[in-house]
Amino acid sequence: MPTKSLFFTVFGKFVKLILSHLSVRIGLRHPDPVVETSSLSSVNPPDVWYRLSIPEETIDRGWLSALQLEAITYAAQQHETFLPNGDRASYLIGDGAGVGKGRTIAGIIYENYLLGRKRSLWFSVSNDLKYDAERDLRDIGAKNIQVHSLNKISSKHNGSVKKGVIFATYSSLIGESQSGGKYKTRLKQLLHWCGDDFDGVIIFDECHKAKNVCPIGSSKPTKTGLAVLELQNKLPKARVVYASATGASEPRNMAYMNRLGIWGEGTPFKEFTNFIQAVERRGVGAMEIVAMDMKLRGMYIARQLSFTGVTFKIEEVPLTQDYIKMYNKSVRLWVRAREKFQQAANLMDAEQRMKKSMWGQFWSAHQRFFKYLCIASKVRRVVQLAREEVKNGKCVVIGLQSTGEARTLEALEEGGGELNDFVSTAKGVLQSLVEKHFPAPDRQKLFSLLGIDLSVKETPSPSETSKEKKVPIITMNTCSEAKSEPEENSCVTSQDAVEDAQRMKRDLLEQLEQLAENLPPNTLDELIDELGGPDIVAEMTGRKGRVVSNDDGTISYESRSELDVPVEILNLTEKQRFMDGDKNIAIISEAASSGISLQADRRVKNQRRRVHMTLELPWSADRAIQQFGRTHRSNQVTAPEYVFLISELAGEQRFASIVAKRLESLGALTHGDRRATETRDLSRFNFDNKVRLDYTHTVKIRNGLIGVGLINVEDRSGVLSLDKDYNNIGKFLNRILGMEVHQQNALFQYFSDTLYAVIQNAKKTGRYDMGILDLGSGDEKVKKVDVKKFLTPGYSTSGHVELYTKLFLCVQVSVERGMSWEDATHVWADQNGPDDGFYVQVRNNKKISILVKEVNLKKRLFMVYRPNIGKQVKLETYADIKKRSKKVLHYCSFIVLSDDAKQHWIDQYNSSANVCSHAYWRGNCKKVSVGLQCEIGLRCRTYYVLCGSVLSVWTKVEGVLASVSGANVKMQIVRLRTEDGQRIVGMLSNKYIIDVHLSSWPCSSSKCGSNSIRRASATPSTHSVTYTPCFRADVASRQPFLSRHTGCVVFNISGFVSKEDSLPKQLQNQSSAGQETALRGAKLDDICSVCFLFTTSTRLNHGLCFPST
What we know:
The protein is of the alpha/beta class.
């Protein structure tokens, strides 16, 4: 594999990737422009030394693009590394949807197949994607690799599959045998097929399905996540690849990625929990460091298609009066339901555990019910928009998350297989809640439990008794144990309580039936019906049937299956009809949102521009990214349009805020920059910031807040009290959905205004997490003053000694932000406003000059330039400027300025180089007088940036931060570009931390001399060498490659002795450039016994001698 270099074209928050091949071509250009976030692109991955075995034909014909080959190469190279615990290292492909992860994965499998590793495992989310896997392998020339579905391989035929790929879903991985076959679980079947020494490839495609291994609160780990972990633990030599655009929307969801080597033996974090605590404690900035560090170590790559041409639009849907009436009636019913649930629980004297479960179910159903009402408010508008877009020559994709099939089947069963109307999903939510979770036990079963016989004198059967004991309703003595009259009365009282509770339950169900006439029908069924029926609309969902409107006006339930199409490939068939142009409207649900491609592909008939409408914003950013990526992919004729429909309901913005927050977090971790998804135009709906709000002290919508449980009322005293989680913003935004429309809108407006004020205050006081902060932006000049290098040990690899260390840097930079007199006069010469020009201010009998320029004629706002800070961020009004300063007269014909203005400007410019504003105005500074440093108003400010492999020394940095008090403890990530074009991204530090704490760390000087080199031990050891590899040799071909960074030549060394030796004759008495040229052309025998250490300028400094192999 030839060494490559990257050139960058910067635009906005992304960097366009342009590959430049130095010697041998490594593939054709990707068919579509691909970008990488500017912060992630600021770090370079390790040098490439691995040589691919993929045939030249595959590369030359462009079956694998240069970008895909890059990922394949780094994955194969990473797989040569073993972690300190003996497990083989893994690789994470975080490419966005549409870049071509499928072909990249196929290429990794093909590479290993050619090297004799004939067996591979490929996990994904749907069995339908097996056909895509076969297509990807076929497209790259690997036709001879067979793909077998796990669900088609029985236990007894497990050994008949000798080689190829076993394709399985995550659900099948946790499947258990019901027939008592040879293997009780699919996992054991796979382990038997792989064998104990399996070193083939395991692909976890769409690996976000394995998240929640480390759950929050009292929830339990998912079976899928645990199975993925177990498979990796049982096969330590396997070559694991994680692949997903949303592989780590939050650090907590990375628990299954134990092969990355970020935590565990030999890392700063002993356990995953230590890693989580450290990262989450330091906020989004820490998450960005994780992504950059993973790329720096060569274990991660993340590119995404350019969003050039993609349009985002937020369509706010107005509410009709009829809808508002229906919504308010629903709110009142839910308020009554809450009261009845509370009263019934008190009557039943329910246990605390039962109450907790009951209220959990209640508020979960509450949120789902109003979510369905929110969606219903947009159906009419989305139908209208879809029809308009089809008429305009486009095709439409509508995204939903749920189908409501469960409620439809329940209604079908209740109606004896017949339906009179479309089924209301919202009604089903509340009806199911009341029927299953209302605290009113069945009268016969309860009396049986109490020992009261209403019919015949017969004791309860063991089965009935045991069944009732599983859900204890009340705790009391039975009447058979009664020995006194008061206890008999308690039985009678409990009988009355049961009857009262049952009456409440019946009343609620009756009120629901009355409201049901106005509740909206199932969204999916209504959309298909309004848009022309199944013949017009391609449905790609996981449901098996649907409710349709017949020609005679009747409503019936029909199966989605067709005579000539098996159910297993029904979604694929519908997709093909859409791509062929037979249907121009498609509706997709979560079942079809992973892996399916619906873009305007150059290879298909239907090349109309896609308009992707998101009618239901997903609760999970994972799901959102998958759906958005269905219509924006490689090889498309036109980029899609995205339309996010959001109703006027204030509470619905909660769902938008969740997606905005998760996308923000997703951009931070999987793409190294949380601003990566800001083009979504949803940031204004992100209300879930890390601020706490006490809203109930000033908002006077008491009844509404009581109705949604944010204010509690004591049963006896009537005293009001705040809910224990009253200042939880997420809970607040969830609950206000259950308030009447005018109430929630008024409350939400107040909330938004208050939150804005809180955030502004947090920014002023330095408590707001800004993510990545740009230094040296605008007219500021950044110079690199000093660099301190710290080396941390890396891992050894198989086949050769990997002399690898991770470089941790402390970069001192100086930011020049002032404006010289010459620059100021140039700006002044371009001004033409009557009030533009130089002004003189007087304070403490000291004069300074400022330059102002009007930028807003309507509001009379002026840009202010100062000699010490240059362009001022805050605009000032003309009234404020006139109040504090006086304009300097000048003669335009001669372009002559007052000498006073010039002298005051130059004086402050020169003084601000090292004198703060306090000392300049008052003659002294309190901080400076006690020996501290003050940078307020300085023209030249010094910053210390920790960059490179920060994660490898995280615990040390964390300890330093914890020991320092003050506002600077937070982990602020900064990005800057120096005058010479170098881009630096890292963690902002300060002089105190550098001087006091980091000075004691082992340091490598910026010049690589003999003092900074720790020599290898004479005893053979693959772990004792700590040099950085610059010049590496491929063991198979025994041909060295020169890399970009400091390091040394490495060959397959089983035992070596370090000693100094002279250079080969052809390298003596030559310049640095000559030595490099000679070295490139030297024969293997001339250089295999000598290891040269180079600086980045390739100047030879030192040599180490090893015996030839």
